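Narrative of activities, Objective 1.

The group set out to show that a structural description can be obtained from nothing but a protein's sequence at a throughput compatible with the screening campaign. Below is one input-output pair from the validation batch, recorded exactly as produced.
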Amino acid sequence: MIKKRSSSNILPNTLGELELGVMEALWQAPSLDAKEVCERIPRFRKSSLSTVQSTLERLYRKGLVERNKQGHAYQYIASVSRANLLGRMMGDVIHLLHDGRLETILSSFVNVAADMDERSLAELEALIARKKQAREDEP
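Output recorded for this entry:
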């Protein structure tokens, strides 16, 4: 029998749901210990403190969080921004699946963008317009 892999494990450098939840908590606070992280990720209420501690250790080894010992506990701080992590993850996907044609990447991105709300599409259009203007303004 073939065992189906979890979709979060398809790419080697992707993060699992709990890891992303922990990063979300750390992006919203300047510094948290494991217990505070546990309290801030309500959708993972079934996760024990030891599970969250293990997750923080994995994120530390991946270089995504920093930690400082204070008393008997570590204080954790996100060492990468949300935008930086998103860029890394998108880069990993593009590198893995890129077939050498920019059209494939752009087409896939436009398909995802088509599902965005109007505000997000307007932001995307404004970003493209700013990039075009910056190119025209270059000497």
